[in-house]
Amino acid sequence: MANFESLRVYQLAEKLANEIWLVVMEWDWFAKDTIGKQIVRSADSIGANIAEGNGRHNLKDNQRFVKIARGSLNKTRHWLRLAYRRNLLTSEQIAGLKHLIDDLSPQLNAYLNSFTKRTNK
User: Fold this and answer.
1) 4-119 domain in CATH 1.20.1440.60?
2) For residues 60 and 119, what is the distance between their CA atoms, to the nearest angstrom?
3) Main-chain dihedrals φ then ψ at residue 93, nearest 5 degrees
4) This prediction's pTM
5) Domain spans, the chain
6) pLDDT in 10s for each residue of the chain, 121 residues
7) Alpha helices for 1-121 (secondary structure H)
């Protein structure tokens, strides 16, 4: 099993989380304290769950953590939608983050599917 840091899916998750962090750091206190904390936590959770699953060295556990990471990605999408609707994000910021999410989502699914292929061998 590859070191999690070398996995493209992890690298994309880390990049998304860091981009969201930079955006949220520019918000006022109230926005940071409400939506900001939530979106940073959900985005950070994607990579953290990939890392934790990889460290388990057990396919079933790894699958479970990747599914949790996928849920965290959906939660991040939710918070991004709210932040945009509440005028905390510009169209340009959303476009940049959407690009990362559009790359990350199929990577997460492919990573999850790779476990199924390994268990069927």
Assistant:
1) yes
2) 9
3) -65, -45
4) 0.93
5) 4-119
6) 568 999 999 999 999 999 999 999 999 999 999 999 999 999 999 999 999 999 988 889 999 999 999 999 999 999 999 999 999 999 999 999 999 999 999 999 999 999 876 666 5
7) 8-24, 29-31, 37-56, 59-85, 91-119
